[in-house]
Design goal:
Length: 508
């Protein structure tokens, strides 16, 4: 199971027109929205002067609600909702050169051979509103003089009158390169899905552990942790744990969120009022359809661009000699053809987005069709099975590293000898003297003798032998790990080009 821990700390947006006189916008890291600040939905990238004086008032006190959820993420739109990224405003920002810093969803694919799921904890801290508001003198002067356009240029056409704040931690997991049957089996096994008060029953815990273990047998798992609100740092060490234990993951995020307050929480959304309510008599367009189409174009763009980039990487890998046996000429030709198709799709989406934003020609996106790509399997490891875990001299409390305490883990690893140069193992759960989150930098000794077993006369299982391909081999590998109570190992697999890829293996 591949583990790539990417901690992304940010406060993160959607457009939802409520009435002709108000709207709601989810927060965006590049948005100009702020409580009491001006905004123009036709110019969402522009900043405006603060035109109101006001007193901020809390509508609710304390935590309004707390929720925990585990779910399979079936689309990019659902993913964006989980991490509170607005597709509509992302379309305005991200499709025109300004979105690189917040396109966190670009790391994820929702192809026919991938699967994503998430464990999410959310605290809603309620709303703050503007009260006793009055214009700044310069703004009041423009209203009195009926200088409607000048006022709109300075103050926008709407003002943010309410702000809602939340704190959220979302652990997002994804696997790729699944066969159709593997994806169907994993989806069917996801019976853990649902909400929780923060304590999962035994059935849900067992279901989740089985699901993650099953996923690790067929593919590699990438892990990203999104932290919204607070400083995010204190949650890191607690989340460097066994990701197949849903209760352990939930406990870590719950402890982090419990320490936050309204002041440390992040903005979730803003409710606005048109300046008409304050005496402005200028005009404003209804941009509901524009925002809907821009949201659709953004998700389509990210999906198409992700496939396009993957096709490029696949073509580069397929050209290397060690992959010659893995990719046929027919597959290479299809990859090249699909590259051309997806390049055209990306260019078409960008043209549509520009027309929608600049000319307000916002045509339906239903005509944009993305062909299914049959991906060749280019993974260096296809299977890792834990055959045994044995401890010696480990009587100290859990997590304590003492001299003479070590654990022997025997794995059966199926890998491609044409690609893999070496495999090393590291502890997954960090100890007090290990500064890297989730990984130990200390190289571990590899046991080569079958007599090195630590529990009596345990007999070494027979080798599973070679696979059908001349380069695939199933081989026993024994790793001696310092310390006890392992939740898992990180295997660092180095290919012939000297590139390392981490794989997480649960040993529970």
């Amino acid at each position: 199971m591949r583990l790539r821990l990417a901690i992304l700390i940010f406060s993160l947006i959607a457009f939802n027109a409520k009435t002709a006189h108000s709207a709601q916008y989810d927060y965006h890291p590049q948005s100009v929205l702020r409580l009491g600040g001006g905004f123009d939905p036709s110019r969402p990238l522009d900043t405006f002067r603060r035109c109101l004086k006001f007193i901020e008032n809390r509508i609710e006190r304390g935590t309004v609600s707390a929720s925990f959820q585990a779910t399979v993420v079936k689309s990019r739109a659902q993913f964006l909702s989980i991490v509170n990224i607005s597709a509509s405003l992302s379309g305005h920002y991200g499709l025109f050169g300004g979105g690189g810093s917040f396109s966190y969803d670009s790391e994820y694919s929702f192809d026919n051979d991938s699967l994503t799921w998430a464990v999410v904890a959310t605290n809603d801290y309620g709303r703050a509103e503007v009260t006793e508001e009055k214009f700044e003198p310069f703004a009041e002067s423009m209203i009195a003089g009926k200088k409607w356009k000048q006022f709109a240029d300075a103050c926008g056409k709407e003002v943010a009158t309410q702000e809602r704040r939340i704190a959220k931690v979302a652990a997002v997991f994804s696997v790729t390169n699944l066969s159709q049957s593997e994806k169907e089996n994993l989806t069917a096994a996801a019976s853990f899905q649902g909400g929780s008060t923060g304590v999962w029953d035994a059935g849900a815990q067992a279901s989740y552990h089985k699901f993650v273990s099953q996923a690790s047998q067929v593919s590699t798992i990438k892990v990203s942790v999104f932290v919204i609100g607070g400083d995010g740092i204190s949650v890191l060490a607690d989340l460097a744990t066994d990701y197949s234990d849903i209760q352990a993951v939930t406990n870590a995020v719950r402890t982090y969120i419990a320490g936050l307050t309204f002041e440390k929480a992040a903005p979730l959304s803003y409710s606005t009022a048109r300046w008409n309510a304050y005496g402005w008599e200028g005009s404003q367009l209804d941009l509901t359809r524009q925002y809907e189409i821009m949201a659709s174009l953004y998700t389509l763009y990210q999906d198409a661009q992700k496939v396009r980039e993957r096709l490029q990487r696949t073509q580069e890998l397929a050209s290397r000699p060690e992959y010659a046996e893995r990719v046929s000429q027919t597959q290479r030709d299809k990859i090249s053809k699909n590259q051309d198709v997806y390049t055209h799709i990306v260019e078409d989406i960008l043209t549509r987005a520009e027309n929608c934003r600049e000319k307000r020609i916002c045509n339906s996106t239903t005509s944009i069709k993305m062909p299914v790509v049959e991906w060749p399997n280019l993974q260096p490891i296809s299977r890792v099975q834990v055959l045994g875990v044995y401890e010696q001299g480990c009587s100290a409390p859990p997590g304590t590293v003492t001299q003479g305490c070590y654990t022997l883990v025997e794995l059966d690893i199926t890998y491609d000898t044409a690609i893999v140069d070496s495999i090393r193992a590291y502890r997954t759960r960090p100890t007090a003297n290990e500064k890297i989150f989730g990984f130990s930098l200390q190289p571990q000794a590899q046991i080569t003798s079958s007599t090195a077993y630590l529990s009596g006369q345990t007999k070494r299982p027979k080798n599973a032998g070679l696979r059908a391909s001349s380069t695939w081999i199933s081989e026993k590998k024994d790793f001696l790990i310092i310390g006890a109570n392992l939740s898992g190992l990180t295997l660092l697999v180095r290919d012939k080009q000297g590139i390392d890829e981490p794989y997480f293996v649960s040993t529970k």
